[in-house]
Fold each of these.
Amino acid sequence: MKEDIEQSENRLQEEIRAPLITQTNKRVTEEQAENGCYDKKQNRCMVYLSTFVAVCGSFAFGSCAGYSSPTQSAIREELNLSIAEFSLFGSILTFGAMIGAILSGPIADYIGRKGAMRMSSAFCVAGWLAIYFAQGALSLDIGRLATGYGMGVFSYVVPVFIAEIAPRDLRGALTTINQLMICCGVSVAFIIGTMLTWRTLALTGLIPCAILLFGLFIIPESPRWLAKIGHQKEFELALRKLRGKDADISEEAAEIQDYIETLEKLPKVNLFDLFQRRYLSSLIVGVGLMVFQQFGGINGICFYTGSIFESSGFPSDVGTIIYAIIQVPITALGAVLIDRAGRKPLLLVSATGLVIGCILTGTSFYLKGHEIAVKGGPILAVTGILVYIGSFSIGMGAVPWVVMSEIYPINIKGAAGSLATLVNWFGAWACSYTFNFLMTWNSFGTFILYAAVNALSILFVIKIVPETKGRTLEQIQASINAS
C-alpha cells in the first residue's frame, strides 16, 4: 500500500509538472516569435537584398548633395561663373527637391514604391548627363534641378519602402541605413571629387542609379501598397517572397489587412486641418525641428565645405577628405545610441556641439581678418567644421526625422509629414543660396549667426520637444497635449 501511494503521488506530481513545462515552453516560444528571433523558417535574404537596392537611392541622394563642394572652383573657372550663378547652381538642387517632396506621396501611392524609385532614378540620370555635357550655366541648372527632384522623391519613398517590407524586429535597424547611406554618398563624392574632374564626378552619380534600376526588376513591390490598392494575390506573393517560401505569413497578412481597414475608416485630413488646436502641438514640434535643422547652416556648410577651408587658409582637399571620413562613423554611432540614450539627450548634445563648432570656425575667420595668430587660424577653422559636422551627424541630422515619424497621429502623418518635409527643403534652399553671399558680407558674422540659431534650438528642445523613447503613440500624444 505504501508503494502504491508513493507511485500515485509521483504520477500526480508528473501530471502537475508536465502542463507547467509545456506552458512555459509555449510562452517562451510566443515571446521569441514576437521578437522575431524564433521563426527559423523565415528567410531574410530577400529583405536584405530589397533594402540594399532601395538604399542605392539614398546613396544617389548623398552623391547629389555632395557634388557641389569639391567642384566649385573647377566649374567656376572652366565655365566662367559668378558667385551668384554658382550659388544658384548649388541651391537649385533643394528647389527641385521641394517639388519632389511635395509630389512624392501621391506619386508613390499612384504608381507604387518601385515605380516612384524608377521615376526618381530616371530624373537623376537625366540630370547627371545634363551636368556632364553642360557648356554654360543654363544646362548646369537644369541638370541640378532634375537631380534635386529625384532627391526629393527618394527622401520620402526609400524609408517608406524599407519600413513596409521589413519584419518588425529589423525595421528600426534597416530604416536607419537610409541616413547612413546618404552620408556615405556625400563622403564618397567629397573624397573622389578631389581626384576627378567635375565632369567625370558627374558620371559617377550614374552608378547607384544603374544598380537601383537593375535591382528593381528582382525585388518585390511593397506588400502594404499592394494590399492598399486591393491586389490581394500580388500582395500575398510579395509577402511570401520577402519572408521565404516556408514561412507562415498568415498572421502578418491579417495584421496588414486590419491596418489597411483601420486607415480607410479614419477621416481624411488636408493641409488646413493640421492647424486645428488638437494637432497644433505636434505640428510645432515637427516643423520646428526641421526649421532649426536647416537654418543652423548645415546645407551651406555641406555644399561649400571646400571653399570654407580655402577661405580660411587650410588645404581644401585635405579638409574635405577629413570631413568625409569623420561623417560616416559618427552617423552610425548616432543610429546605435538613439534607442539607448533617447531623443532629447542626443538633440541637446548635438545642438551644443553645433554652437561650439560655429563659434570656433567664426573665430578663425575673425583672427584671419585681423591678422592675429595667422598660423593657428586655419587649424581652428578645420577643428570647428569637424566639430560641427560630427555634432550634426550624431543628433540633429537624423533625430528630427525620427521624432517627426513618432509624434503625428496616424490620420495626419501624410499631410503633416509633407508639410515638415517641404519646410525642411525650403530651409535647405534658403541656407544654401544665401551662404556665399553671407560669407562675402562677413565670414565671422555668418558663423555667429548660425551659432545663435543653434543656441535657440537648445531652448526649443528643452521647452517644447517631448522625449519619445520607449513610449507608445498614445503616451506621446498625451504628453504633447498636456504640455
Amino acid sequence: MHLRRKILFKIFAALFLLFFYCEFCIYYVVIAQCSWPFLDPKLEHSNIDKTSEEPVTIMVIADTHLLGPRNGHWFDKLRREWQMQRAFQTAVALLKPELVFILGDILDEGFYCTSKEFENYVLRFEKMFALPDHIKLYMVPGNHDIGFHYEITPTRVSKFVNDFNASAVQLITVRGNHFVLVNSMALSGDGCFLCKPAEMQLNHIERTLKCSRAPPNSGECDENSRLAVYSKPILMQHFPLYRQSDMECNDFDSAPMPIKQEKFRENRECLSREATYQLLSQIKPRLSLSGHTHHGCTKKLMLGDGIEITIPSFSWRNKNNPTIGLGIFTPNNYSFTKCSLPRETTVILLYIIGVNIIGVWIIHTLLIKGRRKHLK
C-alpha cells in the first residue's frame, strides 16, 4: 500500500510539472530569447536633429479576439484567454516596454454584444492586460469591436471609446516621437458621423506636422501649434494599407498558401486605395503598423520611403505562431522587430511526449514490481 501511494504521488508530481512547464514556464523560456532591436547609426535621418533623451520602447499586439458567449466552446475561451494573459504579462515583465499598443479587434463579438456582455468584456480585458502605472496602453478599434463602416452606430462607438479610450484619431507624442492612431473604419470618405470628425482631426495633425517641419518664426504657421521636436510619425491602425493580397509578404509569420493568394477587398481586408494615398500624403509616416489579417507582412509604402509591418493575431485560436512587435524610436531613427511566442503545436507535442514518458515509466515500474513479487 505504501509503495502504491508513492508511485501515485510521483505520477501526479510528474503530471503537475509537465502542466506547469507547458502552461507557465514555457512563456518565460521562449520570450526570454527576445530582445529589443538595435538602432543602427547608419540609418539616422540626417535632416532631423538628434536628441539626448532616451529612446522610446514600444510593444505592439493585434487581434486578441476575446471570445464572447456565442462563438467558441467554453474550454476554448478559457484556454485562449489564459495563453494571451500569460504571454502578455510575461512579455511585459521581461521586456519592460514604455508604451503598449493594441491594433484593434480586441473583442470578438464587440459589435453586436449586449451592454451586459460588453461590461463583462471590459472586466476580462482589464484583468488580462493589466499594466503597472508607468506603462501606458493605447488602442485603436477594429471591425470586430465596433463593426465595419456600414454597421457602426454612435452608441457602439461611444461605448467603445469611453471604456477603452480609443477615439477615432489620436496624436501621441513621447520625447519627440509622434504616434498617429487612426480608426480604419472612419476613412470611408463619405462624410458619415464618424468619418467627418476623423477627417478634421487628420487635417489638424497634417497642419501641425507641416508647421513643425518649417523653420522657426518662418511665418508659415501659428507657432503655438508647433511640436517641440519634429520627427516623421508612426502610423497605427487596424486595417493594413491597400494591397492586392499577401503574395508579396515573406515574413516568417506570413500567411500560408493558399491564403496568401486570396484577393483583398477594399475596406474589408485592407484600406481602400484612395484612403491609403490620402493618409500617406497627410501623415507621411516613416513606419505604418497594422493588424486585421491575422498574419505577418512587411512591405514598402506606396508613397515615401517608409515601410508597413502587419502584426499577426495575438490569439492562438487564429495563429499557430503568434508574435509581438517590438520597436525602439528616436526622432531621427528607429528599429522594429517581431518576437515569437510559443507555438501551439510545440506545446501539444510536449504534452504528448511528456505523457508518453510518464506512461512508459509507469509500465516499467509496474513490471519491476511484478517481478519482485514473482521472485518472492
Amino acid sequence: MTTDSSLLNSELELQQQEELYQQLLLQTMGKMQTENPDSKVIRPQPGMCVKTVSESDKQKVFVNICQSNSVPPPPELSREELVELLQSEDPSGYRVPMSLGEPHTEVDNSSQGCTAYDVVINQEFFQRCQKDPLFQQFVILVSLEGLENKYSLQLSRDWKVLKNRKFLGSVSEQNIRTKSRPVIQELQPQESSAATARRPEFTLFVEPPAGDPEYLIAEIKLPGVPSSRSLVLDVGEDRLVLTARPSLFQLDIFHPFLIDQENSVAQYNKSTEILTVTMPVVSS
C-alpha cells in the first residue's frame, strides 16, 4: 500500500491550509468551554513521557502522550503496511486522531524550567503502540509533527522515552468539542468551474452492512491526480464536497446520514488513485 496524504491530527476543530491534511477536518482542542459551549470535558490517562529539545534554543521539551477512549481510533494499519508507509515519499500519510493541548511550564528532575505538551490519542491504539516499538516510534513522530504544525515549533527527532515517568506535571482536564461547526465552504470560481471539472466515479457504502450503520465510507476514483496536495475536501453533516485542482474533478453530494464531522478521516492512495473518506454516522 502506497499512500500520499498527510496527517489528520486533531483537537476537534476545522483548520484550513494549502495541503490536503490541512484541508481535511483537523480536530483541535485548547478552546475554553466558555468560548465554545458545545464541548465536553475529558480527563486523559497518563501514557508515556518523551523528552526532546527545541531546535531554535535547545530548551528541554517534554511531550506527555496520554490515552483516552474519547479520542477516536485511527484507521486499521498492519505492521507491514506501516513499514511500507515509513519508506514511502510521504511517511505522514497515516493520520492519527489526537488532541493537542496547550503548552505548560514544568520543572524537570534537575529543578530546571521546561515546557511540556499533552497529546491525547485513542486508548486502544496507545496500548498497541506500547507492544510494538515501531508503532511507538511512529506515534511519537506524529505527535511531534502535530505540535510543530500547531505551535510553529521545530523539535529535535533525537528523543528519549523516559522509563520511570509516564507524565511530567499533573494530568489536566481538556475540553473537546462535541458539536461541529459548518464546514462547507464556497469554492473559488477557478477551483469549481463546471465547464472544465469532471464528476469522478465514486461509491458510498455503510459499515456494518447490516444493522445500524456506524460508518459511511466514500471511495472516490481520481485518475490522473498525482498527490493529495491537489485535493480540497470538505465534509459536512450531510454533504461531501471535493475539488481536485486545477479543475480536474469536482464532486458535491448529499447523503441521508448525519455525520460526525470532526471524527471523519480521509486517505489518498496514489497507487490506486482512490480517495477513501471514512465518516462516523451519528444517526440515520
Amino acid sequence: MIVLSKFRAFTSKYPIIRGILSYGAIWPVSNVIQQTMAGKQFDSLDWNQVAQFAFFGSFYVAPSLYAWVRISSVIWPQNNFKTGVIKAVVEQFTFGPFAITSFHFWMSIMDGKTFDESVDAVRQKFFPTWKVGMCYWAVLQSINFTWISEKNRVPFVSCCSLVWCCFLSYMHQLQLKQKEKELTKLAL
C-alpha cells in the first residue's frame, strides 16, 4: 500500500510518467492484437515488432503527446466544448500529421529500411492513415480536451490508442506484405 501511494505521488509530480507507462503497455498490446487478428499464433508473433511498438510508444509518442497537450492547454486554457473542438481540429492539422509521419518513418527505420525506403513508406501511407485519424481522433480529442482533466489527458489518449495502434499496426503490416509479394515475384 505504501509503494502504491508513493507511486501515485511520483506520477502526480511527474505526469509524463503516466503517459510513458500507459503507452509502454498499450502500444505493444495493440500490436499483439493486430498480429493475432492477422492470423498469427502466440508462438509465431513478431516479438521484435512488439518491442518496437513499446519503444516508440514509450519514448517518442508519450513525450511528444505530453508536450502537445501542455502547449495546447497554455494556448487555450479553457475547458469547454468549443475550446475542446478547436484544440481537436488544430491537433488534426498540426500534431496529427507530425505523429503519423513520425510513426511510419521510424517504424520503417526500425525494420531496417533505408532512409529513402522510409520516406517512401510515409508517402504511401500518410494520407490513408491521416483520413482515418481525422475521423477517429477529432471526436476523441474533443471529449478529451473538454471533459478530461489535464493530468489524465495523455493516459486517456493512450487508452484510445489501443484501437488506433491496431490500425497503425495494420497499416505497417501492409507495407511488409507488399514487400514480401515483390520479393516473391522477383524470386520467380
